[in-house]
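User: structure tokens for AraC family transcriptional regulator, please.
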Amino acid sequence: MFETLDLLFLIVSVLGTAQAIFLIVLLMDEGKRAFTANRWLMVFGFSVGMSFIDDTFDPMISPLTNLYLVPVFAPFFFALIPSIYLYFREISGDPAPRPYRHFLVLLPVTAAIGLMVYLKRARMIADDGHIRDAGLQIEFSATGLADMVLLAIVILFCVLFAVYMTGIWRCARRYLQQADWQLQADSERLRRWVTELLVGMTVLFTVFTLTNLFDLFVSRAEWLSLGVKVGFVLVFFRMCQVIAQNPALFVQRETEGGVFDDLSVPHGSAQELDDQDAPMSRAIVDVSNIERIRTRLERIVTDRNMMLDPLLTMPKLANAVGVTPNQLSYVLNQHLGKSFFD
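Assistant: Done. Predicted tokens:
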């Protein structure tokens, strides 16, 4: 028979797992042009989803089995913040050259957690009468090697949290500065969403970190942990809602290094590409191609078949026109005075 808290965790975990899967499906549906940046949001969704799956198993299996599963699920916590950081690096036009390096920390963390579980296992078996309360709480003692390993893991997570959150805010600021001249009419919506994502993630990651510290050093914090899980569910729900309402926000901007079709801008000089103080040198659409985009768009609107599609999104319309979503948004805003929803 489940206790009330176990039942609540199970309900939230099932909802969170379903929401994570739905988010990943939505991001994948944005198409290949959006995949480069959105893959990191998918990694984020997958990592949180693994945590939800772990919580789904918790009330159904023994505490000792739960302990054995810790090395399988716990390392994914170290992929949460790097994945958001790489997402903002990607959309700000400064992708990480070797992004896999940001996830190499999972290897030593997994090994350390495996060692910690091996050492904790003996204590749990010896103290079977209080097996549920022993868990992974830190209880320093003369033979507390497992506690020291766990403490090292916690310190590493806190350091990564501080470093990556600083980088995320810097990337987001750079992205908003660049996006102002790209999306014009949509820039306010973009700014509102990015700010909302930043503040939400910062609060959520901070509470998540403090909750785990409290749980390890002070006392079990089941209700706080449940609140964090609910927070992740709400973040997933909000992200899905924004994708459905304005998918163009989830498509990275295009530069000369990643242009598409015959409507893309011609390549500039290396000097222009390296000039960080002249963002307008990275034109979205060449002037000579604007009329061609408008003609194709007018033909699609006149035909009306696509315009009556209730599931029409910016990427779908841009694909029909033969341009990227950002290029289409630029022409709509700058030359037609309309947004996608207009």
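User: Anything notable?

Assistant: Residues 128-138, 253-283 have pLDDT under 50 and may be disordered.
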